[in-house]
Amino acid sequence: MSINLSEASKELIDPLYFYEPLSLSHSQDFFEAPEIVNLQASGAKFQLKFSAEKLLAQSGVFSDVITLSRMSDGLVLLRIPVVLQLSREPTKGRTLARVDTKMEAFDIWRLPIKLDKPSPISFEGMIAAPDGFEGARVYLHIRSEEGHVSGYHRVSLQQSMTPIHYQSSLLPKGNHELLISRNYGRPAVIAPIQVFGSFSKPQIKVVASQVHHESEQVQILVEAMEPIKWK
Predict the structure, then answer these.
(1) Which long-range contacts (CB under 8 A, 24 or more apart) does 30-37 make?
(2) pTM flag (> 0.85)
């Protein structure tokens, strides 16, 4: 997470000598953060380490507020909201497979599925890497019955909790195979990671779109892939 000074604030300080230690506080336990952040003219950076144990324990919304205060007098300078929404209960009817698996080095998760009619396939989930993520990569593959790769997505982990959002193109009716694999770059941390989420058939697909520049609006035409119930 990066913090930068405004242009007005930069005019009030000496960039060669400015240094302000800030106290960081928050109340929830689904992530960890440093207690002190060093603010300089170039700004400040700090990392959040999310707790896989807490986030994997239940679904729902996790929220907290990070408060940065000046240590010299306690003045609050910045409040940063942190909100995560994790859904681990897939919607009935559209779900093809639910994933909740621990992956060691070069592990592969795979499952055959059958589409009763042409449809895209999407994956929504999260990768938890509490013991390190440097160099780790996760690949999603969708293979046809003939073995051709009809869907592919690579995720390079950048933090201890990495979201995955992917949707394939329109796939034909018939048999397919869903695969999740793990690989590495260099340098790499090879500690176990947890992948959870679900493969599903989208309810709608975008057929066409048009931008109206005068009104600054976008018009989208969608087609229902499954019957939709409006509440």
Answers:
(1) 30/54, 30/55, 30/62, 30/64, 30/84, 31/64, 31/82, 33/66, 36/71, 37/3, 37/68
(2) no
Q: Where in the chain is the domain with CATH 2.60.40.3170?
A: 2-86
Strand, helix or coil for residue 52: helix
Alpha-carbon distance of 70 to 160, in angstroms, equals 28
> Could you read off the pLDDT of 83-130 as tens digits, one per residue?
877 655 544 457 888 888 888 888 999 999 999 888 889 998 888 887
Question: Cis before residue 187, ω within 30 degrees of 0?
Answer: yes
- CA 77, chain centre distance (Å): 28
Pick the CATH number of 2-86 from 2.60.40.3170, 3.40.50.1240, 1.10.357.10, 3.40.1190.20: 2.60.40.3170
**198: buried, middle or exposed (CB in 10 Å: 19+, 13-18, 0-12)?**
buried
Question: Domain 95-201 - what CATH class?
Answer: mainly beta
